[in-house]
Amino acid sequence: MGWQYWTESAGKGTWREVLEPHADVAAGELRVRSVATAVSRGTETLVHTGKIPETIAHLMRAPQQLGDFPFPVSYGYLGVGVVDEGPADWLGARVFGLLPHHTHHVVTTEDVQRIPDHVPDHRALLAGAAETGLNILWQEPPRIADRVAVIGAGMIGTATALLASGMALDRLEVLETNPDRRRLLETLGLTAVDPSEASSDNDIVIHTSGTEPGLARAWRSPATTARWSRPRGSVPALPRSRWAPISTPVDCPSWPARWVRSLRDGERAALAPSGSRPRSVPCAMIVSTRYSLANLPAKTCPG
Fold first, then answer.
1. 171-175 and 191-193 strand pairing
2. CA 181 to CA 199: how far, in whole Å?
3. Of 118-122, 185-189, 229-233, 291-295, which range is least confident?
């Protein structure tokens, strides 16, 4: 038997016991046995509380999602597993995919990326965050000696800042209200400041906090040339401003048309050997809490 996590109503989730799926090997399908999945806190809080706006529900749909918004829905897009059914050259391969919280998945080879041997499972989960950061920087690449500010030090903001730190910038600041997060960023070699102490003369401001104060701060920045916003438990209202953003996509893996390069390009780059990147990104430190899939919670998970 297998298990799937479903959000049944606002704030209430259930592990459903289901028959194990099997791959049609003749059709080139793979079955992936999950080793680890990660929760994208901002987006999945919106899903879990039923707060996905109807106007963007079709854009928020995850590639392997089951069910429809608001409920019941089985959502998620950060998964690592091992191929245990499929073509011979894929058997035993460790893969990353935009997969929900299930014990098994049936996918195609186009749905997953092989994980290099040197990348541990929990680090590979962060390929989704690194891929989003790469797309942000691909969309509006900082130039030599630019002054860049990243607002918000969550998973996306931290990954973006770590990637940007390998560029020849004059200044890179991460604005974060949480002192514990600021200390973490400092251990990663980043400059983290309280918003009240941040510099105002920026060439590029990247907004990743998903909060109204953070978005308002980005909108007020006098020299902003790029912004990127994502939800974190709520969809922030946009203040009136004479500035028009280059893009403000929600952090959503099913919205590649708005991104400069494809999801597969980003995933491939995020999982690339460290020697092909300007610096090794210690993404595993961004993972805050770990739970074992071998110890699934009770079938009903309120809150």
1. parallel
2. 19
3. 229-233
pLDDT in tens, 75-103: 999 999 999 999 999 999 999 999 999 99
Statement to judge: residues 191 and 224 lie in one domain: yes
Which residue, among 73, 12, 5, 69, has the nearest Cα to 39 in the 3D structure?
5
233-273: pLDDT as tens digits = 455 555 444 333 433 333 433 333 333 344 566 666 667 65
CATH number for 239: 3.40.50.720
Question: 271: burial class by Cβ within 10 Å (0-12, 13-18, 19+)?
Answer: buried
Residues 114 and 143 in one domain: no
Shared domain for 135 and 112, answered yes or no, is: no
Q: What is the pTM of this model?
A: 0.79
Question: Is the same domain home to 103 and 137?
Answer: no
3-class DSSP state of 4: strand
Are 82 and 140 found together in one domain? no
